[in-house]
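User: Could you check the structure of this?
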Amino acid sequence: MLEDVVLMEDEAYGLSLLSEKINIRFRLATRASISSADAWQKLISIVTKEFDVLETVDFNAGYLITAWKLDIFNDETLTIKSRVIITHNGDTSENNYSIKMVSQYGNGEPDKLEDSNFKDWNKMLKKYYDILDEIEMRLH
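Assistant: Sure, the predicted structure tokens are below.
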């Protein structure tokens, strides 16, 4: 007896893109004509277009981390969580940064949102994809 198996469509798959820049730190050296303070302000301005909650912002330490942004799919059975981490490389008088866009997937149930229930995902939701391009375009 043959049975038909119906697979649920992965909603997140269609709304995401594969990226080589996801879940890795990559360096960004800004143009020399941009001061450290201006570069920092531009970075915050770009990131807060999609990530309105910043968990840590410290100009003197050169560290910015957004809060996790949760996107829930497939009738709450899949959660994608995303965040941006920016660190300053070296002296704050220099304009060298490391940027990491973090993307993870896991169980969507509200009581299972602990970090241990998530794994790195090599895709990025399309709505966040332009952040990295805009950072490079405006600062490099």
